[in-house]
């Protein structure tokens, strides 16, 4: 059974598994309890992973089409997949901003989150504008750039919330 071939199911599994349970497992390993702020931070990674997931499928588009897979990206189409990625990224950062509002008001912490959001938008917005004309290799480079934005986000969250 290839759940990747079932568009939407693959997305939900990855959002819950990697986007929610993985960050929570890391937090649980610290032995610290969850407060409202931490809950919002951890939950913000669910829509962030939801943003990343369709991007993993764009560079495999042709191969998935040949196999007849109905991945989330194929079901949505390239342009809507990119719109989902942008929307989910904005939702994730709205959740991080909510958590930040609950916990701090230092300018440098807000700056860390703004830089991370900027990294995502610098990757996603140009990609979204050109998505239908890109080659699989260009989509793959976009995906790796999104992974770099994810790394910037991890650092920003650590700076903002662990300070």
Question: Overview of this structure, please?
Answer:
With 163 residues, the chain is mostly helical. The chain has 7 helices and no strands. It has helices spanning 9-28, 36-58, 61-67, 72-76, 78-103, 107-130, 136-162. The termini are far apart. The mean pLDDT is 90.
List keywords for this structure.
single chain, 163 residues, mainly alpha, 7 helices
Please outline the helices and strands.
Elements (H helix, E strand, L loop, with lengths): L8 H20 L7 H23 L2 H7 L4 H5 L1 H26 L3 H24 L5 H27 L1
Helix pairs in contact: 1-2, 2-5, 2-7, 5-6, 6-7
Gist?
This protein has helices at residues 9-28, 36-58, 61-67, 72-76, 78-103, 107-130, 136-162.
Radius of gyration from CA coordinates: 16 Å
The total of beta strands comes to 0
What is the SS-derived class?
mainly alpha
- Main beta sheet: none
Q: How many helices in DSSP terms?
A: 7
**Would you tell me the overall average pLDDT?**
90
String of helices and strands: HHHHHHH
Percent range of helical residues: over 70%
In whole angstroms, how far apart are the ends? 45 Å
């Amino acid at each position: 059974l290839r759940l990747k071939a079932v568009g939407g199911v693959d997305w939900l599994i990855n959002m819950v598994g990697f986007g929610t349970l993985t960050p929570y497992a890391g937090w649980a390993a610290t032995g610290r309890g969850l407060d409202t702020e931490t809950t919002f931070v951890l939950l913000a990674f669910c829509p962030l992973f939801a943003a990343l997931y369709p991007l993993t499928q764009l560079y495999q588009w042709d191969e998935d089409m040949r196999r007849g897979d109905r991945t989330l990206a194929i079901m949505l189409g390239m342009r809507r997949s990119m719109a989902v990625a942008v929307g989910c990224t904005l939702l994730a950062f709205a959740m991080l901003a909510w958590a930040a509002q609950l916990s701090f008001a230092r300018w440098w912490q807000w700056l860390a989150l703004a830089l991370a959001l900027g990294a995502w938008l610098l990757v996603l917005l140009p990609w979204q504008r050109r998505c239908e004309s890109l080659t699989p290799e260009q989509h793959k480079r976009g995906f790796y750039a999104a992974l770099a934005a994810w790394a910037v986000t991890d650092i920003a969250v650590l700076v903002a919330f662990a300070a």
